[in-house]
Design brief:
307 residues, alpha/beta, 8-stranded mixed sheet, 3-stranded antiparallel sheet, flat
Length: 307
């Protein structure tokens, strides 16, 4: 064990602070990278890129299509063959000259930014009945945060935990999250997420990634009192939570739910929330996060996949 600790110190993963061992920022990042490899193994064959869209525009990757040069286009994207052909057609070989109107530019794939709020359920139900749901929940959250911070560094990312109430946390706190004696105030989490996305300064693309076991059991009343009911799905709480999903849809915020439980009545709620928001949902088994059901109400499709 001493040799392992010395090796981790040498790698810069841990350090000694006040006579106790703690993870360094590099160690925290290593955890996120490991989680990314574990969860997203099925994506290894996918081509790399930054938020690709079906539109052409100011991106990096060249497309086969070309267009006339406009001010601001990159000279490195000039289609030399088409440009010289245009010049030849205009003046012939004897009076060959190159003018701006001859320039043909390769179209590039438009790439866009995105604002994301990652919500993590820290309610007591995440460890209830001896079933550990918080570990796979953190694993998914770590993977998603690593994907966003490394592949899309220009994106806005905020992390929110929700139990009795919703709280904004720092990304370095993510590996150490624990559940508490809390109920599940999904509505408060979505309200905080909407507020953060509204203030993020990012335009069109806004989304919420929510990692949960699916059961809302609390909400704040207008007077500020916490109303809670742990038995089944309380229609009063469910309806207010679905109202928040609709509010997100109206503000063009897509909710993607990562469900770390397979109880039928919990799945039914997530189905209703996903329909209300016209978002997406992944239903993952606890034993293997690579075995999931993907539901996409935007494209109206359902897919089962294994890594």
């Amino acid at each position: 064990m001493d040799d392992i600790i010395d090796k981790l110190r040498e790698m810069g993963v841990i350090e000694e602070v006040d006579a106790s061992l703690q993870l360094t920022p590099k160690g925290v990042q290593r955890i996120r990278q490991d989680a990314l490899r574990e969860v997203f193994t099925s994506l290894k064959k996918a081509p790399p890129g930054n938020h690709e869209t079906p539109f052409t525009g100011g991106g990096v990757d060249r497309l086969s299509d070309t267009k006339k040069y406009t001010y601001g286009d990159q000279p490195t994207n000039i289609d030399l063959t088409s440009t010289l052909t245009n010049a030849y057609r205009r003046g012939g070989i004897d009076e060959f000259s190159l003018k701006e109107e001859d320039l043909e530019i390769y179209e590039t794939e438009h790439q866009t930014g995105c604002a994301t709020v990652l919500m993590i359920d820290v309610s007591h139900s995440m460890i209830l009945y001896g079933e550990d749901r918080i570990t796979p929940a953190k694993q998914v959250a770590l993977a998603l945060s690593e994907l966003i911070t490394t592949r899309f560094p220009k994106d806005y990312l905020a992390l929110v935990t929700f139990g009795d109430e919703a709280q904004l946390i720092n990304i370095n706190e993510l590996p150490f999250l624990t559940v508490g004696p809390y109920h599940t105030n999904t509505r408060a989490g979505l309200q905080l997420a909407r507020d953060l996305l509204r203030r993020s300064g990012k335009g069109g693309n806004k989304q919420v990634f929510m990692v949960t076991d699916g059961k809302p059991s609390a909400m704040f009343e207008p007077n500020g009192r916490l109303y809670k009911n742990s038995f089944g799905l309380d229609p009063r709480i469910v309806n207010k939570t679905l109202d928040e999903a609709v509010a997100c849809r109206r503000e063009h915020i897509t909710i993607t739910t990562f469900m770390v439980a397979r109880d039928p009545y919990l799945i039914n709620f997530v189905e209703e929330l996903t329909k209300a928001n016209r978002g997406r949902a992944y239903y993952s088994s606890l034993s293997s996060l690579g075995e999931s059901v993907f539901v996409d109400y935007i494209r109206n499709r359902r897919k089962k996949f294994t890594s």
